[in-house]
Amino acid sequence: VALTYKPTHRLGRVVVLVGGVGGAKLAHGLAQVLEPEQLTVIVNTGDDFWHRGLRVCPDLDTVMYTLAGIVDRTNGWGIAGDTTAMLEALRRYGEDPWFRLGDQDLATHLLRTEAWQRGERLTAITRDLATRLGIGVALLPMSDSVQATVVDTVEHGLLPFQEYFVRYCWQPTVRAIRFESAGDTPAAPTAEARAAIEAADALLIAPSNPWLSIDPILHLDGMRALLLARAIPRVAVSPIVAGRAIKGPAAKLMAELGLAVSSVSIAEYYGTMVNGFVHDVQDGAAAAAALAEHGVRTLQTNTVMTNDTERASLAQQMLGWLAEWSHA
Amino acid sequence: VALTYKPTHRLGRVVVLVGGVGGAKLAHGLAQVLEPEQLTVIVNTGDDFWHRGLRVCPDLDTVMYTLAGIVDRTNGWGIAGDTTAMLEALRRYGEDPWFRLGDQDLATHLLRTEAWQRGERLTAITRDLATRLGIGVALLPMSDSVQATVVDTVEHGLLPFQEYFVRYCWQPTVRAIRFESAGDTPAAPTAEARAAIEAADALLIAPSNPWLSIDPILHLDGMRALLLARAIPRVAVSPIVAGRAIKGPAAKLMAELGLAVSSVSIAEYYGTMVNGFVHDVQDGAAAAAALAEHGVRTLQTNTVMTNDTERASLAQQMLGWLAEWSHA
User: Over chain A (328 residues), what is each successive 10-residue block's mean pLDDT?
Assistant: First the structure.
């Protein structure tokens, strides 16, 4: 990862909460402009599941592959140039290979599953894999305990997240979303995630799906209180741009939940969890006015991140903006 | 698998004990000339091991891929046209991918491991996989219990079989071979293997390595007595042809064990376990004379099986020869 921008701001440590593709882009932008020790990326693991006997962590992998510079840039997930020979072989056995496990990608799942079966924590497993791929920033799963996202749909009832998202291509109508902890005690953030949040000078929420990617993190036992206790900039980036989602089911889901599909709805949804909000220039003046009325500091800029430079540019602008807060 | 030869003999049921590549060839020859319900293939599972969290059964897979017509004919094992993207990805993580797990091949290991973790018997798992690949003959692991072959070497001490065979390319000097059952009770043949042996009209031992591939089967609790109790043709095919091994470490191993590298040594090694012996035309008259003196019926023919026709031809000749025994 080339350092396109030099740090000009004086923010010490930044924590960003992320889901998959959109979150990975912002994490990559931040990684370009911050020193590795300044950045902690906390990743949603609500999508994680057992598949074909393997522990698969889709969002962790998307962020890891993106930070390592090996992600498939067309899809935004998976490894560039990966093949699907194993999936085709499953078809020979009469199986329906509905979840893509690329051949190169399988190496990650095999190493993770082996370590998981040995009893290692997901945090340690992820650190090991990320380090081996040359990633310098701290990449943390939100929890070492299982908390699975379950989607309640009109057509199929309760669906494990990946069935909703991949098998049914997020086409079912969502009526509710649940987070199910394994075992009796609710899943909690790791000591590493807690420490990073407690030491942070700024907290960012990536333009990931608030309901499907960020809520699982916020739902962890004690997480909301931990974040609200920090008197620092807590800034979300809107995943809704000019009334549309850049990728994935955010807009469709908002409509199903009875919400107006706008960045204003996103800001309202995060409520007091954030004291700053970043939204896109395509949103126009009306949205900017509505957000100003909402009572949080706002930054209106280009948030779409279509290439590495735009990722770094958004990160740079946000960090510059946040650095000014202390002088205001 | 095309039926190249029509059955002309009247042997009802045949059981063949096999290891990997050489055994797979004879099993394939027999499958070409017998009706599926006539043939039971009992496969060595002493080479099986856990690798990268997967339950890998090299000999079972070699025989299964061969019978399904999808084997890589150059190597004799693995799937034709398979790729190694996963292994290359392991290398990116700094791993040494010493054991080949082809990308297509991984589908087999994943399905097997998933079923194994659910507690299914290897016999049932193998039947399921083989059936899905269109295999009609009974393909049986020698046991549902683990009995691992361990090779005691001069250079590295005790080595699990695959470390000796693949990692060190069978180059270490062997001083002894052990069979280690998991748990307190020795591994035993399955009910399916027992029933097949008890119902057999002829028992064949494929030209597999006697020490590394056939001995693990014979070592199973009660197996030798079970075989010796059957007053039927019990015939081994020599893996040594004109003093050389067709493939693998048989000749090298025999020398290390202090044996003359000849088909006569193989017949002597099997002793009373066999009452008939098949050896190659390349062996010459001296070997034939020595074998005749050894006191078993012998068939000298082309045993090398370089193509499908030669496999079927050897099977056909052996079965014809065996059918004559009852008239002798």
Answer: 47 93 96 96 97 97 98 96 98 95 98 97 98 98 97 96 93 95 92 98 97 97 97 96 90 94 95 96 89 89 94 96 78
Q: Tell me, what's the pLDDT at B10?
A: 65
Provide the CB-side half-sphere exposure for A33 (13 A, CA): 26
DSSP for A282-305 reads: GGHHHHHHHHHHHTSEEEEE----
B113 CB within 8 Å of a chain A CB: yes
Q: Which whole number is the average pLDDT over B213-217?
A: 98
Q: What are the E-state strand segments in chain B?
A: 14-18, 39-43, 49-51, 54-56, 138-141, 147-153, 157-160, 174-181, 202-205, 234-237, 240-241, 244-245, 276-280, 297-301
Does B131 contact chain A (CB < 8 Å)? no
- Tell me the per-residue pLDDT of B165-202, one tens digit each, with 9 for 90 and over: 999 999 999 999 999 998 889 999 999 999 999 999 99
Nearest CA in chain A to B90: A107
CB neighbour class for A247 (10 Å; exposed up to 12, middle 13-18, buried from 19): middle
Question: DSSP label at A211?
Answer: I
Cβ–Cβ < 8 Å for B177, B212: yes
Q: Pick from B70, B104, B133: which is nearest to A86 by CB?
A: B104
**Tokens found for residue B184:** 């307190």
pLDDT score of B275: 95
Cβ–Cβ < 8 Å for A32, A305: no
| Cβ pair B236, B277 in contact under 8 A | yes
Among the partner-chain residues A52, A103, A105, the one whose CB lies closest to the CB of B83 is A103
**Contact in structure between B199 and B11 (CB atoms under 8 Å):** no
Q: Give the confidence band of B2 by pLDDT, cuts at 50, 70, 90.
A: very low
This model of the complex carries an ipTM of 0.90
Q: Which residues pair with A157 in a beta bridge?
A: A153
Task: Using only the alpha carbons of chain B, give its radius of gyration.
Answer: 19
Percentage above 90 pLDDT, chain B? 88
Decide if B322 contacts B276 (C-beta within 8 A).
Answer: yes
d(CA A43, CA A144): 11
Give the pLDDT of residue B278. 97
Q: What is the token pair recorded at B29? A: 């020859």
A79, B94: Cβ pair inside 8 Å? no
CA distance A319 to B155: 60
Asked if B191 and B208 count as a contact pair (C-beta separation under 8 A), the reply is no
What are the DSSP calls for B16-82, one per residue? EEE-SHHHHHHHHHHHHHS-GGGEEEEE--TT-EEETTEEE-HHHHHHHHHHHT-B-TTTSSSBTT-
Q: Which residues of A touch B52 (CB under 8 A)?
A: 110-111, 114
Q: Nearest 5 degrees, angle CA B164-CA B168-CA B172?
A: 70
Question: Strand A138-141's sheet: what is its strand order?
Answer: A138-141, A39-43, A14-18, A202-205, A234-237, A276-280, A297-301
The pLDDT tens digits of the residues spanning A55-81 come to 999 999 999 999 999 999 999 999 999
